[in-house]
Amino acid sequence: ILLLNRIMIEEEGLAKIPDLEVADLKFKYVQDDADKNKLKKLLVSRIEQNEMAPFYEAVCKEFNWGIDEALLKRMKQKNYEQIAALDSKIADTETNLGESDIRDANFAKAEYLCKIGCKDECLALFRKILDMSLALGQKLDVVFYSIRIGLFYMDVDLIERNIDKAKTMIEEGGDWDRRNRLKVYEGVFQMFNRNFKAAVDLFLDAVSTFTSTELMSYDQFVRYTVYMAMVALPRTEIKSKVIDNDEIQQRLNSSLLDVKHFLMSLYNSDYAEFFLNVMCVEAFLKCDRYLHTHYRFYIKEIRIIAYAQILQSYRSVTLQYIADAFNVSVEFIDRELARFIAAGRLPCKINKVKGIVETTRPDSKNYQYQQLIKTGDHLLNRIQKLSRVINL
After folding, report:
1. Does the pLDDT value for residue 116 go beyond 50?
2. Which of 112, 125, 119, 121 is nearest to 55 (CA)?
3. Which letter does DSSP use for residue 207 in this model?
4. What is this structure's pTM?
């Protein structure tokens, strides 16, 4: 029943304009040295499928590819014919029809320009459409297009401005579907900005209502949700919000077995299996457009979580025991723990003579006292600087 409901919901997604899979393939082509020929063929095929003549020329120039003149000519001809037909439709509606028809004709042209990769032209036309008489839902649809264009080109300013605009519009009375859609859009942007906690909160709110297949498949959405939860949520919330979530479990038990193994190996303290899964996750993150710049940070944080989890059960434990648990050498564990202890990320110390790790329980009251002293000193310094300015 869950699967049938999910299929029905996914069919409600918007048209994939712009086609973000094109942007994903382009990124993977840059990152993956092993399958460049295969990825190039897939990318060019997808470009041809979407008739993206302007984008094809830009990509060939960026990667110094030889241009397939016959392919380019065919796509340009299709672009010319389609844009001419759309311009004719706009002219006809402006002469003979009403405002709503004029708006729809302009929207159709903006969609096509967006589809073929004419970024500046389609954004200019969308801005023109926003100046027309539109219902709130129609304005939000235009803003969502602008966000997707920003995600396609990774134009951070464009994404941020339009997410803020969409949030303001939603507060004015956006409908249920668009409210949930915005959660996914904003979650992707927060994930891209390494705000994993905000991202997972938004994603979890949208798990049962996800319809944003124009951004990603539901499987990919669940993958991101689990990855974000594992690094941003405490263990108890991972259990209640992820492991006990029926919709997430349905995907983990069918099409996302690798994600399930990663999640459950950490939760069940199967650290040897966890380390093997970490390598697979790292390979995925390296080739992901949204998380590539954060993959080192993510892998470091998830390792710290695993080390803290095994250490919190003991006051002291041998390095050999930890090394055996993770199926690595004692020297590796020694280096890893020393690095994170020195950075203040693990509350423990290593006794090299005895070959043990001794945990040091953090004193919360002492920590709060130190923070109070630090904040107080900072405040006094600010007051002294302000008093000197006033005396002048």
Report:
1. yes
2. 119
3. G
4. 0.87
